[in-house]
Each structure stands twice: as C-alpha cells, then as structure tokens.
Amino acid sequence: MVSLALPKGSYLERPVLGRFAAAGLEVRRPSERSYRARIDYDGDIEVAFHKAREIPLAVEKGIFDFGVTGADWIEETGAKVELVETSGCVPPWRLVLAVPADHPAVDVAGLPPGVRVATGFPKIARQFFQSVPLPVRIVPSFGATEAKVPELADAVIEADGPDSAFDEHDLRVIATLRTCVPQLVASPAAWRETGKRAAIQKVARLLAAVDGGAAHVLLTVRTSSRNLPSVAGSMPERSWRAGTGLTEGLVVVQGLAARRGLAETIGGILAAGALDVIESHVGKDVTP
User: Fold this and answer.
1) C-beta separation of 233 from 273 below 8 A
2) Residues 86, 188: one domain?
3) Residue 192 and residue 205: Cα distance in Å, rounded?
4) Shortest CA distance to 185 belongs to which of 36, 9, 26, 67?
5) Strand order in the sheet with 45-50
C-alpha cells in the first residue's frame, strides 16, 4: 500500500480529481469536505488532502509516498523530491508580478527602490529581484494576496491561474517570473523501495494515458492491397495492420496520430492512395 497527497482548496483540486477519475483511479471520500480518502487500485492507495504548498516538503520527508502539487511550490519550498510526471490536467499557469492598473510602471524597471511586494512565494520573489537587481520589501502573504494592495503592499507576486483575482482588484501584470505546471512527485525513500516505486509508476502511466489520449486520435484507413506499401509508409509511427475488408483486395490499417498536424497527416495518407480515413476519439493512450 502507498500513500498519496492531493491538493485541497485550490484550482488544482477539481482538475486533479477529474484526471484521476478519467484514468480509472477514482478518489473515494465520504464528502467533498473530507480530508481522507482512498483509491481502490493495486492494494488500495491511502489519500490525504493538503494545501498544495504543504505537499512538496511532506513528500520529501516521507510522510506521503507521492503527491501532486505545482512546480512553483516545489521551487519555493526547495523540496528534494523525485519528479515522476508532469500533468496536463490544467493548462500551465504563470507566476507574475502585478501592480495597480493606474501605476506608471510598464515593467519591473519602472518600480521604485523599496517598493512593497506582497507574495506567498518570498523565496522566488527575492531571487527575482536580486537578479534585476532592485531592492524591495517582501511582504509575506498567506492568502488573498491581491487584496493586500494598496494598504499593505504596492505590488504583488502571485500565480495567475484560473482562480486569480487580478481583474477584481484592478491589478495589471507587468512581468512573468515563471510558467508552472502540476507535477506528480515521489519521496526519495519511496522511490528507492522497489515495490513502492513500481506502484507509483503504475499510477503515473495511467495518468499519462489520459493526457496521451487527449493528444491523439485513432485513424482507421481503408486502402487497396496494391497501394498498401505507400499508404503504410505515410501512416504515423504507432500504426498496425488491422485486417482485410469485406471486399476482396481491400486492407484496413489503424494508427495513433497526434492532433497537432492532423490535417497534414491525413492529407499525406490520402495522397499515398488511401480510399478513406476515419478519425476516432482515444480515451486513453497507455504505453509501456
């Protein structure tokens, strides 16, 4: 049995749960307010919900065998964890520097020395301003960072994600510090243990299959036996011969094609002599 930490109370929570469910790893908990749950897979997985910022260090210490958090929190905490997989459950988000809409600054160079910057990412913020360089006053924030302006701060560094409140607080982005993604991470101790590492990798493969399915389509292609060599040569790398048609002289081949560049792929297959191409949805794309 392995233990898993999932993010609670952030824009990651619902997409992460949706991705686990799509992978066949439904997280079962008594209610949405519960902080304890389980996944009925591979001898059960014990699940606990915590703030995304808390998960990296908890996983590093081995309190949990693995977890899902943001790349920004891994960097901010400096946690020494194994990066198992990057998740596509939500689009990448930015860690940004924002000022009031009527502020004269159009970039960081326009900020005066000693400006007060509220942030939940003080380590990343200090590194950023040291690299500029610009002396600032970091105002640690533990929530509602955007609301710290103007009384407690002159600017903010915060994640510009799906639930950001920059518009509501009339803030304007003037710099991007990082682009971040969700990460599946494992504790060094669990990663060294053969059984736990194998269990974590199984979960990672199922989660990756969801992203792979979204990024690919299944092409079913009919061609004549005479044109099969040229059609086969134009098929995506991950293709196979599916069988023969009901009409003598016809062959059916299938392949997984990336959505990106799909029109060009299909065009090439038809130009090679295929009779027709049917595109189908791929729920999952599981690879060894």
Assistant:
1) no
2) yes
3) 18
4) 67
5) 27-28, 36-39, 45-50, 2-7, 66-70, 182-186, 82-86
Q: Are residues 250 and 235 in the same domain?
A: yes
b/e map of 234-255 (b: 16 or more CB within 10 Å)?
bbbeebeeeeeeeeeeebebbb
Cα 123 to Cα 28: distance, rounded to the nearest angstrom: 36
What's the total number of domains in the chain? 3
Q: Does 74 lie in the same domain as 121? A: no
Name every residue whose Cβ is closer than 8 Å to that of residue 24 and which is 6 or more positions away in sequence: 41, 206
Sign of CA pseudo-dihedral 35, 182, 209, 282: positive
Taking the mean position of all CA atoms in its chain, how far away is CA 194? 26
How far apart CA 177 and CA 97 sit, in angstroms, is 7
Task: Give φ, ψ of 221 to 5 degrees.
Answer: -125, 130
| Residue 173: C-alpha distances to residues 71, 108, 141, 167, 203 (Å) | 20, 10, 18, 10, 37
- Which residues, in sequence order, are CB contacts of 267 under 8 Å at separation 6+? none
Torsion, Cα 7 8 10 13, to 10 degrees, reads: 70
User: Which among 187, 204, 194, 197 has a CA at the least distance from the CA of 82?
Assistant: 187
Instruction: Dump pLDDT digits (tens) for 140-158.
Output: 998 889 999 999 999 999 9
Does 36 have pLDDT greater than 70?
yes
- DSSP secondary-structure letter at 60? H
Residue 183 reports pLDDT greater than 90: yes
pLDDT above 80 (res 193): yes
